[in-house]
């Protein structure tokens, strides 16, 4: 660079200039999702959270479908065929509004739709994916059980052949979208190993009671799935996969979205703290002028934008077909953990106001406590990385 070249101004919203890495279409998608969230979620989400509900979820799903946000990175069948980076940017913007909205999209696209797209028959794809991409049908993903979370190989839900049919029995727990889903992808033990089944919600013996009394992800539908002698035709099984690689492959795809999404919650909390620090006065001047507050803001900005840069790097690797599951674990472990710390630090800057729903900080912090645990706990991702680093398996 010549001495006379003029540097661009410092951008507090993008201090590393990460936007320079994005294509015009990437920016357009990001701005479209951000605008939708600002119009359809942010004015209402504090009230939804306080009441512990997500009203109009089916309308929201159809709107998200019209944006191309459902099954966004899948191709064909009405899906947008977006890049992994574009999908990640959408997840960031959705979680900046609320983790529950990003969870709705992640479970729909990266779990339920991805399972059918990747492992389903052509008939299953044709039947479900176009309607799910449009938001006309909401999907859920039944893997976790009341007694088996981190160890899905020990699941008790089972499916037995009965002539040409399958009969499913079991319970699934903590299922996002369950009570409003029109279709569930359910994983069960069979004599052949773990298999996935496409279960229409109206099937006799299938029910999805909603889980209440949550203090996290309150603006989200969370349910139990109950399967009592649910009879399905032989065509309901996902034909292209047997064993844990099926559900774990879906989880890897969803965890990637979390790497981005967590940074959305962190950004929202950081921005709230920054604005507050510049306007809140103590001892005759804004608290943002004090060294300790500036140190907090600087540390938060460093971790926030390092996390976004990490997400972008992983997205480019996914687009190139080079992203390993261990690298996704790296991203989820780091970004969710740092996002929680950013929220907690932001709360200290807001003081007592930080616990008020007038500000987004405590809502994001409590949501992230769930995000920290679901789709792989901290400990599980640490052990994934530990095994990759040492070559030694500490899981059992």
UniProtKB/TrEMBL annotation:
Domain Acyl-CoA oxidase/dehydrogenase middle: 140-230
Keyword Transit peptide: yes
UniProt keyword list: FAD, Flavoprotein, Oxidoreductase, Transit peptide
Pfam family, one: Acyl-CoA_dh_M
InterPro entries (alphabetical): Acyl-CoA_Oxase/DH_mid-dom (IPR006091), Acyl-CoA_Oxase/DH_mid-dom_sf (IPR046373), AcylCo_DH-like_C (IPR036250), AcylCo_DH/oxidase_C (IPR009075), AcylCoA_DH/ox_N (IPR013786), AcylCoA_DH/ox_N_sf (IPR037069), AcylCoA_DH/oxidase_NM_dom_sf (IPR009100), Glutaryl-CoA_DH_mitochondrial (IPR052033)
Acyl-CoA dehydrogenase/oxidase N-terminal domain: residues covered: 24-136
Cofactors named for this entry: FAD
Domain Acyl-CoA dehydrogenase/oxidase C-terminal: 243-389
Transmembrane is among the record's keywords: no
Gene3D superfamilies for the chain: Acyl-CoA dehydrogenase/oxidase, N-terminal domain, Butyryl-CoA Dehydrogenase, subunit A, domain 2, Butyryl-CoA Dehydrogenase, subunit A, domain 3
Family membership noted in the UniProt record: Belongs to the acyl-CoA dehydrogenase family.
Name of protein: Acyl-CoA dehydrogenase family protein
UniProt source species: Streptomyces musisoli
């Amino acid at each position: 660079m010549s001495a006379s070249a003029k540097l661009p101004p410092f951008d507090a919203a993008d201090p590393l200039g990460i936007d320079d890495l994005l294509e015009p279409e990437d920016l357009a998608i990001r701005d479209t999702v951000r605008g939708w969230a600002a119009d359809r979620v942010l004015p209402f989400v504090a009230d939804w959270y306080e009441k512990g509900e997500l009203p109009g979820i089916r309308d929201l799903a159809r709107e998200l479908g019209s944006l191309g946000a459902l099954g966004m990175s899948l191709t064909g069948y009405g899906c947008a065929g977006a890049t992994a980076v574009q999908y990640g940017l959408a997840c960031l913007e959705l979680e900046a509004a609320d983790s529950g909205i990003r969870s709705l999209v992640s479970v729909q696209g990266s779990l339920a739709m991805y399972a059918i797209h990747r492992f389903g028959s052509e008939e299953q794809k044709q039947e479900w994916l176009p309607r799910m991409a449009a938001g006309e049908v909401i999907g859920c993903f039944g893997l976790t059980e009341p007694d088996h979370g981190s160890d899905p190989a020990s699941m008790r839900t089972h499916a037995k052949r009965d002539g040409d049919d399958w009969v499913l029995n079991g319970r699934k727990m903590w299922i996002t979208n369950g009570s409003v889903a029109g279709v569930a992808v359910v994983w069960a033990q069979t004599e052949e190993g773990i298999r996935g089944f496409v279960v229409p919600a109206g099937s006799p013996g299938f029910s999805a009671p909603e889980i209440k009394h949550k203090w996290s992800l309150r603006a989200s539908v969370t349910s139990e799935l109950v399967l009592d002698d649910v009879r399905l035709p032989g065509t309901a099984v996902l034909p292209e996969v047997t064993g844990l690689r099926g559900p774990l492959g879906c989880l890897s795809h969803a965890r990637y979205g979390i790497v981005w999404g967590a940074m959305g919650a962190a950004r929202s909390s950081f921005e709230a703290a920054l604005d507050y620090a510049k306007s809140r006065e103590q001892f005759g001047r804004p608290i943002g002028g004090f060294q300790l507050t500036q140190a907090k803001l600087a540390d938060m900005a460093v971790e926030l934008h390092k996390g976004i840069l990490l997400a972008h790097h992983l997205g480019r690797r996914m687009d190139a077909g080079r992203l390993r599951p261990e690298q996704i674990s790296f991203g989820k472990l780091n970004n969710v953990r740092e996002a929680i710390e950013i929220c907690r630090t932001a709360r200290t800057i807001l003081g007592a106001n930080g616990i008020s729903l007038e500000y987004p900080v405590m809502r994001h912090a409590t949501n992230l406590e769930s995000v920290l645990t679901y789709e792989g706990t901290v400990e599980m991702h640490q052990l994934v990385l530990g095994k990759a680093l040492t070559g030694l398996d500490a899981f059992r």
